[in-house]
Amino acid sequence: MKVGIIFEGTYPYVTGGVSSWGNTLMKSMKDVDFCVIQIGDVPKLRYPKYKFPENVVDYFEYFLFAKYDFSKKKKIPDDFLNKLGKIIIYPFDERVMAQKLYNLFKDYSDYDFTSILKTKYYWETMLNFYKSYIPYENFTNYYWTLQSMLLPFLNSMTVDLPKCDVYHTITTGYAGISAIMNGLKYNIPVILTEHGIYHRERQLEVLKANWIKDEYRTAWIKLFNTISSLVYKGSKQITTLFSKNQMFEKELCEDESKMQVIPNGIDYDRFSKLKYREEKDPFIVGLVGRVVEIKDIKTAIKAAKMVKEKIKNFKLYIIGPTDEEKEYYEECKQMIRLFKLEDTIEFTGKVNVLDYYPKLNVLLLSSVSEGQPLVILEAFAAGIPVVTTDVGACSEMIYGSKEDIIGDAGVVVKPKDFVGLAEGIMKLYEDDEFRLNASKIARERVKRRYRLDQMIKNYKKLYISAVK
User: Fold this and answer.
1) Where is the DUF3492 domain (predicted)?
2) Same-domain check for residues 180 and 251
3) How confident is the model at residue 116 (pLDDT cuts 50, 70, 90)?
4) Any idea what the CATH number is for the domain that residue 439 is in?
5) CA 376, 379, 380, 384 torsion-angle sign
6) Rounded Cα gap, residues 8 and 168, in angstroms
7) Segment 431-436 mean pLDDT
8) Structural domains in the chain (count)
9) What is the C-alpha to C-alpha distance for residues 55 and 53, in angstroms, rounded to an integer?
10) 442 alpha-carbon distance from chain centroid
11) How far is CA 45 from the centre of its chain?
């Protein structure tokens, strides 16, 4: 079996998270061949952070904002445009739109969709929309905004991916659109796995983005919602990491029979051999993750300042690469100097976490967005209690789910709540009984529910059932 696994802006160029999960998945399925498909934004020189497993037999990448020569592909015919014109009536319900577009694409999957931008239909539709909704807007700005919205979408629909037995896309988005269109073209099933919920994440980005004018925010959100709904419609199976994600998927996906939860898994034996550090002088906390804004390292630093005022012999290791967002890293170092925490907080850079877990009393996670963090599972298997923000699956992992009600393995607080993070660390420092009991619960929770062999077995079953 050959699986085309599709990443958008992650593997093999970005470490951690989705990339680590994907690398582990492929490496653990030695009897499955993989074609890694990477979608970037613009062509540029990049260096892989991962060495491909031996069963990666092909690699392919394309770029959303590149200009491709699609001259050998058929141009979009007039009958397609006539049908499209009857479908696209603004405003619209995204699920209804996705259903109609999917039915249309089934008959027109192998065309140069970028050629739409050069048709009379596109020009007239664009002008009519402009006159009806934003005639006060600068037309040049309007024209290029629309181009930037549509070009990556149309490129994703047009690019021919390597033919595989199944496409496995790790997000809806542009990766999902590529999977669906090529699945229709080659009559190949598509599986979707969502770590974070794409349409929700894009919605937050659009609402916060300073570069997007208010006139365009609704259009951007509707575009991303339609893309997600279209990918849900065309996917044979939809998996996610934890049950709370399914609530958001159901906003745009009506067929719940496709949906299932497959939690992340880690090599329990590898991490459970590590001995938990019970002694607490010094009291050592570790934050494992890239030094980037989404991990909110600055909130962790603020929490460390508060903890240092109560625990004199306290240490925080920030364990992970520092070169991804260099300006943010410099700002973090400046904050540490301002707080006079140079002797308390240490950036380790990229290291082997197995060397650091035995040194830790507590794992800290201060992120503003996560799926189901592997670092929590690794820490749990090593018996390390966790203080985390309530993002993604974190609360379910700390407190347990309906399948797992054995107790608390740490403390959960709201995102950005540095006071709560500090208090959580202090609770684990002061309450030895709670800390040691959390350590035991953490190990048991991973052993029961989050083992790598369970995860691999579930995905193998998914691939086989999709092909059948």
Assistant:
1) 1-251
2) yes
3) very high
4) 3.40.50.2000
5) negative
6) 12
7) 97
8) 2
9) 6
10) 24
11) 23
pLDDT (tens digit per residue) in 218-245: 999 999 999 999 999 999 999 999 988 9
Same domain? For 286 and 258 the reply is no
State the Cα–Cα distance between residues 110 and 86, nearest whole angstrom.
21
Of the candidates 397, 417, 9, 6, the residue with the CA atom closest to the CA atom of residue 205: 9
Q: Are residues 62 and 17 in the same domain?
A: yes
Same domain assignment for residues 403 and 274: yes
What does the pLDDT average to over 125-143? 93
User: Looking at residue 403, what is its pLDDT?
Assistant: 66
State the residue range of the domain holding 300.
268-450
Is residue 233 assigned to a domain?
yes
pLDDT tens per residue, range 147-198: 999 999 999 999 999 999 999 999 999 999 999 999 999 999 999 999 989 9
In a domain, 239, yes or no: yes
**Residues whose CB falls within 8 Å of the CB of residue 457, separated by 6 or more in sequence, listed in order:** none
In a domain, 107, yes or no: no
- Locate tokens 């040049």: which residue? 140
Q: Tokens 């010094």 belong to which residue? A: 282
Q: Where are the beta strands (DSSP E) in 14-83?
A: 33-40, 56-63
237 and 347 co-located in one domain? no
**What count of residues does the chain have?**
468
**Distances in whole angstroms, Cα of residue 26 to Cα of each of 13, 47, 169, 192:** 16, 20, 14, 16
